[in-house]
Specification:
By secondary structure, the protein is of the alpha+beta class. It is built from seven helices and six strands, in the order αβββββαβααααα.
């Protein structure tokens, strides 16, 4: 029997965690977002596995400044963790955290209750831990400052150029003729310098720049 579980999950989240709103996602994933503060959001992502498994699992939870995070850990400007790591102190086993929802109303109700318990017991405390960490994380603070202070100054033509550079950099290989990357943009070096200011090293900074530019354009452009 095919059970449409999405309405039950949305109902549970609305009743138990009303500040979390379902984001536009399709397929097997359901991503909920809450605004924590200015430029800061928390996310809970569920994955559905249909028949014959009929189960839900919290795949990843995170806090970051992305306004339109896509659910992939590597693209959040902040921190994420999967539920299995939270439940096992970093040593998850297969299917840890998966909750079966069965086919009856009672089984589905039990599933929703279990998911609620997981969020309260593991996810929300993790969010508090991350929010505390991000307050003192220099890289994160620098990125947020550049997002807030520098990107709004861009002209419409500048935003068009950024968008085209991001698209070409995503769709083409460096060896291809005409390849461009965001590093060709006139303000890239200035942003790099602002973000790396007072940092002990510059690891992954270029990756952060690409991600916050993509996030900014997705949301505002």
């Amino acid at each position: 029997m095919r059970v449409v579980i999405k309405p039950f999950l949305v109902k549970m989240m609305k009743e138990e965690f009303p500040e979390y709103e379902l984001q536009d996602k399709s397929g097997l994933f359901y991503l909920f977002r809450k605004k924590e503060a200015e430029n800061l959001y928390s996310y809970i992502q569920f994955q559905r596995e249909g028949a014959p498994y009929n189960q839900l699992v919290i795949t990843v939870s995170g806090v970051g400044c992305n306004k339109r995070w896509d659910g992939y850990p590597s693209t959040i400007i902040g921190k994420t963790r999967c539920l299995g790591y939270m439940m096992s102190n970093g040593m998850p086993t297969s299917n840890l955290g998966c909750v079966k929802y069965g086919e009856t109303e009672e089984e589905i109700s039990q599933c929703m209750h279990k998911l609620k318990e997981q969020i309260v017991t593991y996810v929300l405390p993790y969010f508090e831990e991350v929010k505390s960490f991000l307050k003192s994380d220099k890289l994160f603070q620098n990125v947020v400052k550049v997002m807030g202070d520098e990107l709004p100054k861009e002209t419409p033509d500048g935003l068009e150029e950024i968008k085209s550079l991001l698209i070409s950099g995503r769709d083409m290989k460096p060896s291809q003729k005409g390849y461009k990357s965001i590093r060709d943009y006139k303000n890239y070096r200035k942003w790099w310098d602002l973000i790396t200011k007072d940092l002990p090293n510059e690891d992954y900074v270029g990756f952060y720049i690409l991600n916050y530019l993509k996030d900014y354009l997705d949301f505002y452009f």
